[in-house]
Automatic annotation (TrEMBL):
<feature type="domain" description="Acyl-CoA dehydrogenase/oxidase C-terminal">
    <location>
        <begin position="255"/>
        <end position="387"/>
    </location>
</feature>
<dbReference type="GO" id="GO:0050660">
    <property type="term" value="F:flavin adenine dinucleotide binding"/>
</dbReference>
<dbReference type="InterPro" id="IPR013786">
    <property type="entry name" value="AcylCoA_DH/ox_N"/>
</dbReference>
<feature type="domain" description="Acyl-CoA dehydrogenase/oxidase N-terminal">
    <location>
        <begin position="45"/>
        <end position="155"/>
    </location>
</feature>
<protein>
    <recommendedName>
        <fullName>short-chain 2-methylacyl-CoA dehydrogenase</fullName>
        <ecNumber>1.3.8.5</ecNumber>
    </recommendedName>
</protein>
<dbReference type="InterPro" id="IPR009075">
    <property type="entry name" value="AcylCo_DH/oxidase_C"/>
</dbReference>
<dbReference type="InterPro" id="IPR009100">
    <property type="entry name" value="AcylCoA_DH/oxidase_NM_dom_sf"/>
</dbReference>
<dbReference type="GO" id="GO:0003853">
    <property type="term" value="F:short-chain 2-methyl fatty acyl-CoA dehydrogenase activity"/>
</dbReference>
<comment type="similarity">
    <text>Belongs to the acyl-CoA dehydrogenase family.</text>
</comment>
<dbReference type="InterPro" id="IPR046373">
    <property type="entry name" value="Acyl-CoA_Oxase/DH_mid-dom_sf"/>
</dbReference>
<feature type="domain" description="Acyl-CoA oxidase/dehydrogenase middle">
    <location>
        <begin position="161"/>
        <end position="249"/>
    </location>
</feature>
<dbReference type="Pfam" id="PF02771">
    <property type="entry name" value="Acyl-CoA_dh_N"/>
</dbReference>
<dbReference type="InterPro" id="IPR037069">
    <property type="entry name" value="AcylCoA_DH/ox_N_sf"/>
</dbReference>
<dbReference type="InterPro" id="IPR036250">
    <property type="entry name" value="AcylCo_DH-like_C"/>
</dbReference>
<dbReference type="InterPro" id="IPR052547">
    <property type="entry name" value="Mito_Isobutyryl-CoADH"/>
</dbReference>
<dbReference type="GO" id="GO:0005739">
    <property type="term" value="C:mitochondrion"/>
</dbReference>
<dbReference type="Pfam" id="PF00441">
    <property type="entry name" value="Acyl-CoA_dh_1"/>
</dbReference>
Length: 391
């Protein structure tokens, strides 16, 4: 706790030592109450609570202290992610026979939420790596599974997902990259964009066209980094870490990462209100800000409930799974961005300083309303489901 606060509120530039000590003591006394109120572990089994705690602890000690540096220097934190893999987070829902943890989609969502309290963009990449690993495990043949999955589970090798192209985003079925069989090899032609980890990773899951127009003509090819003809363009100058995917499952990792960021921001806002003084008293005595904090906490808990219901629906292959996943992605990413943005507002001018973690959470999760199918697309999916049911 003390390390995290020193990163966010460096007393050398903003606070006196006594102010920092007061912040630490006040926040430490109230953390238990806050965590109980926000109920991150509510409804989870004992086993789920254990790996949730493990993920929260890892986020606090291995990610949060370095989050700002990774962002500023655009570092791909290989060693930190390999430490996460030692806890089983490199193949969370990959089968144990190839090195995975064999957990459920709900378990996975719980882990991503907890990790994101330490660093959203790193967790977002870990979620993509896990999905690539799962795709090989689920759809690959025995040779492919045994070749790729064990090293992906340990994160000795890293994977990237390649769907989006310069001319196709949400309309993924219009992709133009082709794969043509020549002898015993496929020849790929095309380009991909917004690839998280691109250039730094070892295995690329490439969606390409092997048949006619539309989604049925698309296949998936595993391409290794040293494959002849594979080249990498310049890194885009982005507001924050970004990725684009378009499968129903990955609506939930985006929402889970947003949820973790919102959880962290509610804590940061609460801590700030308790110690920041204006007009002779702490901001925590301002009823308007009390009401805002109450709304933030309520929206956080409501978002978590919807997200976990969607994860259960997907896990159980229910008929409402796609609609619920779309609802979760829409609602959670919108509301959690609003929570983080309100937390920044509560910090006043300090919220706009990079010494304060709240601004990075705001930047990192804004993209979740765009990636993995924009929230406008989520509305289309939900509406079509409702209208088809009424018909």
């Amino acid at each position: 706790m003390f390390k995290r606060i020193l990163v966010i509120f460096p007393y050398s530039t903003v606070l006196s030592l006594s102010y920092t000590a007061r912040l630490y003591s006040v926040c430490a006394l109230r953390d238990t109450i806050l965590n109980s109120l926000l109920a991150a572990a509510h409804g989870l089994s004992d086993e789920q609570k254990e790996f949730q705690k493990m993920a929260f602890d890892f986020a606090a000690h291995e990610m949060s202290p370095h989050m700002a540096e990774w962002d500023e220097k655009e570092i791909f934190p290989v060693e930190t992610m390999r430490k996460a893999a030692q806890l089983g987070f490199g193949g969370i829902y990959v089968q144990p026979e190839v090195g995975g943890s064999g957990l459920s989609r709900l378990d996975t969502s719980v882990i991503f939420e907890a990790l994101s309290t330490g660093c959203v963009s790193t967790t977002a990449y870990i979620s993509i790596h896990n999905m690539c690993n799962w795709m090989i495990d689920t759809f690959g043949n025995t040779e492919q599974r045994e070749k790729f999955c064990p090293e992906l589970c340990t994160m000795d090798k890293f994977a990237s997902y390649c769907l989006t192209e310069p001319g196709s985003g949400s309309d993924a079925a219009s992709l133009l990259t082709t794969a043509k069989l020549e002898g015993d090899h496929y020849i790929l032609n095309g380009s991909k964009a917004f690839i998280s980890g691109g250039g730094d990773t070892d295995v690329y899951i490439v969606m390409c066209r092997t048949g006619g127009k539309g989604p049925k003509g698309i296949s998936c090819v595993v391409v290794e980094k040293d494959t002849p003809g594979l080249s990498f363009g310049k890194k885009e100058k982005k507001v924050a870490g970004v990725s684009y995917i378009n499968l129903h499952w990955v609506y939930l990792p985006a929402a889970s990462c947003s949820l973790g960021a919102a959880h962290a921001c509610v804590q940061l806002a609460r801590d700030h209100l308790l110690v920041r003084k204006q007009f002779g008293e702490t901001l925590s005595n301002n009823q308007f800000l009390q009401f805002k904090l109450a709304e933030m906490a309520t929206k956080l808990v409501a978002s978590r409930l919807l997200l976990r219901e969607a994860a259960l629906a997907l896990q159980e292959s229910r008929s409402d799974a796609v609609s619920l996943c779309s609802m979760a992605k829409l609602f959670v990413t919108d509301e959690c961005f609003n929570i983080c943005n309100q937390a920044l507002q509560m910090h006043g001018g300090y919220g706009y300083l990079k010494d304060y973690a709240v601004q990075q959470f705001v930047r990192d999760i804004r993209v979740h309303q765009i990636l993995e199918g924009t929230n406008e697309v989520m509305r289309m999916i939900i509406a079509r489901s409702l209208l088809s049911e009424s018909g």
